[in-house]
Write a structure and sequence with these properties.
Largest sheet: 11 strands, mixed
Distance between the termini: 36 Å
Strand content: 15-25%
Helix content: 10-25%
Number of domains: 3
Number of strands: 11
Order of helices and strands: HHHHHHHHEEHEEEEEEEEE
Amino acid sequence: MRDLGQSLEAFDDRAGCEARLRAEVPVELAEAFADLRYDAVVEDVCAGLAAAKAEDPDACDALRVTALRRGCRLRAALVAEAPDACPPAAVGTEGRDPLCLAWASRSPALCAGAARRDRCLAVLRNEPGRCRRDAEPARCRAEVQRLGPVIETAGRARRPESAFEATLRVEEEGEEEGEAGDGRAGDGEPSASGAGGGEASGGEAGGGEASGGEAGGGEASGGEAGGSEESRDDEAAGEVLARVDAPEALERGVTLLAAEGERCARVLALQVGHRFREGARVALRATLGPDGSVRLVTIDWAGDRLAGDVPLRAPTLELAPFEARRGAPIRGRFAGSVRVGADLARLRGQFVTHLRDLDPLPAECRAPAGDTSSPR
């Protein structure tokens, strides 16, 4: 099998490509495409190669079939090292395709955001042996052979930090619904607070130096999520209805998406729960303003004692300053209340994860002078 680099080297122009492929395609395969009424498959294949050779992912939009457009974008973004041009993720995951993001960024650390992590690393490091753990090992090995030689991975980046803790417990009579969550969520006091306010010290949405150091690195001075003695004392004050303590629950990370109708604002989306015990799950969304303030927070909680997703009352979110770049560490804590039968229960939690994907902001939304964040 030719690798992608060899195919691009052999590509001269679309007319020559089409003539060569028509001469090489077996008659049985050509007949099958004719039965599918897809006579233009050769033209689309060559248009995809032209887009990759020109490092022009947008040219892929002219292809006739959705799946081919996605594959074309992935290959063109990979060759161009342009993660912003990656195709959308599959249904159920926000942002861009996790495999494409990691490959186009040449970042093993971003493979933590991919469901097929072994395949992601196998292609990045051109190591077909890793495919033995993939659900489709033959397809994985074919992708390594096709794409692996094109990618030159710089070093072996550490996997991003990941931890999550959440507790749902009955509130004692007299507790205030709007009380802030307990426990530190990482280095430094989180400077942006949710449901109405707080200035983020970084300026731009999510801006400022990441308090935890390099992506995946740094010790959290407040201990790992879920470790404070103060939070355990609080939990003893009421019946615990559900608890989540998942060291790797946030592998897929956070996405920062452009907010509809607001040119310089982003929406932070965090969905966790695929490895939670007791069936518990949390989905959190927050709007981050141009100044970094957290202006709107919604939190849905689902667990054994709740039927389906339930939005929390008076939700709050606090974020430590973080750098707006893929792979950057993000630390935060959240709280809210919910009715469980006749009881009013309080959800409190904290997390450490990484920025999986972000939408680029327009040039006029760049951070002010002195801010070291790098919106792209």
